Amino acid sequence: NEQxxxxxxxxxxxxxxxxEVGKTSMIYSLVxxxxxxxxxxxxxxxxxxxxxxxxxxxxxIVDYSAQEQSEKELYEELRRASVICIVYAIxxxxxxxxxxxxxxxxxxxxxxxxxxxxxxLVGNKSDLVEYSSIDTVLPLMNQYKxxxxxxxxxxxxxxxxxxxxxxxxxxxxxPVTPIYYPEERD
Length: 186
Ligand code: GTP
Known about the structure:
binds guanosine-5'-triphosphate; 6 strands; disordered N terminus
């Protein structure tokens, strides 16, 4: 696979997160429009042709599996990504804690503190709980300016999945650049 060129408009969406949060299931359900209990450890890299994306830009979706990939491969994928989805399982507090204790610091280590790769926090398995996790993860947005949006989905119910991949494309194509108001006085 060719590394994308600087002027290549391909959007590269990378899914990372703790084991078993449902990264592969999310991609599987998006692609096949049905949930399967038996998914491989890692989904092969897939390219969605421009014509079938709402933003008309070819989009590559990249799965990450700690089981099958080395840390070095993870670091390479972090550097190649146009947008990074940190996936957690809403019903598993440990996977939420790891967003701030492992994943966000790891992204800083690899891309620098002031990188401009947008990050999306994705809470999967919304079908298993009656509550929302958004209030729990939202404060991270104040600490990490690269977090563009926090969303929940269910790979099992196909709930909010296509929307999440659409948000991911949009954050790359239409970045929300911070507006600074310099404290100027006459
Ligand atoms: P690793 O390959 O270990 O990194 O895991 P992963 O993040 O790719 O998770 P995977 O897709 O293999 O899913 C882990 C388990 O959670 C499987 O048993 C899935 O069937 C289940 N699962 C995934 N998504 C959902 C969901 O939305 N709801 C429910 N109830 N279960 C889910």
